[in-house]
Amino acid sequence: MIIxxxxxxNDTRVALVPEVAKKLIEKEKVKVWVENGAGAGGSFSDTxxxxxxxxxxxxxxxxxxxxxxxxxHPIPNSELxxxxxxxxxISMFQPFFEKTIGEELKGMNLRxxxxxxxxxxxxxxxxxxxxxxxSIAGYRAVLAAANHFPxxxxxxxxxxxxxxxxxxxxxxxxxxxxxxxxxxxRLGARVEAFDVRTAAKEEVESLGAKFIEVEGAKDDKAAGxxxxxxxxxxxxxxxxxxxxxxxxxxxxxTTAQLRGxxxxxxxxxxxxEGMKKGSVIVDLAASTGGxxxxxxxxxxxxxxxVTIIGDSNLxxxxxxxxxxxxSNNFYNYVKLMIKEGELHLDFEDEIIAKxxxx
Length: 358
Known about the structure:
By secondary structure, the chain is α/β, with parallel strands linked by helices. It has helices spanning about 20-30, 45-50, 60-65, 75-80, 100-105, 130-150, 175-185, 200-205, 230-245, 270-275, 320-335, 350-355; strands spanning about 1-5, 30-35, 55, 70, 90, 110-115, 155-160, 160-165, 165-170, 190-195, 210, 250-255, 280-285, 300-305, 305-310, 340, 340-345. Helix 7 (about 175-185) links the parallel strand 9 (about 165-170) and strand 10 (about 190-195).
């Protein structure tokens, strides 16, 4: 069985790093082919791969001969049409957004699995690429905010005067939000956080942040860690409270997403315009519409003195660790599909069945 890893388009990460490829080869008894130069963005050379037994190949050879291919971002359909029949393709297909992807893969006689459809359960934690990448995004979001914020994060008392700590507001206390809280606290900021999920309160407070609570939230434990759609009355009260808190904040980091739907607007235009000049908003939900009404995906804009950073791909700015974590998730997932060195798809396995999209 041949596992093929392709170079990402417009991303510095790679789906499999050499040290994890070595485990696949030695423990799962498979061949691993990696596209020439695929790891360069993360400082993994072709020689690094070859040293552990990986064969480096051209993109065309991998597409035509691999039994299973993995990428972080989906391979373009124009290339997928060149794959061998019944090949397994694994990527972040996001079928809740790309609703026709299953039929498209089926039409090309391919079997598709999506990383983002792996159940977010205790059993599948080691395979959860969404959590791994969200943790990095939360960390990088605070660093991005600090780079654009024209003041200190920590409180400083000097002979020249005293500097108060920056006030950071985190909207959404999932994996990314919690990592953002921890990072902002380490930098010395005063942090408060909001989340519709009441279960997040204890985690937020354990990190030393203040939890902002709006009474009456709907909470769905079956939502896989995502927020759920709230009532109009709740959203009205939420908007007013966020608006009030934002007026006092120097930094806002937004992370809230609804699975398969446009991200909820948490920071309105009036809120941005009421913030202090020099304030910074980092919107991690930019690719699904953004939590800020003025966010532009993959752009940094300045609106009346407030910097708004729309970036849902911050993990690509930390390609060495991001690639390693993604690789470990991939290894723990793909070994469920391998038996004695050959492809073995057990659809009685909940993780396999729920992540299968065609």
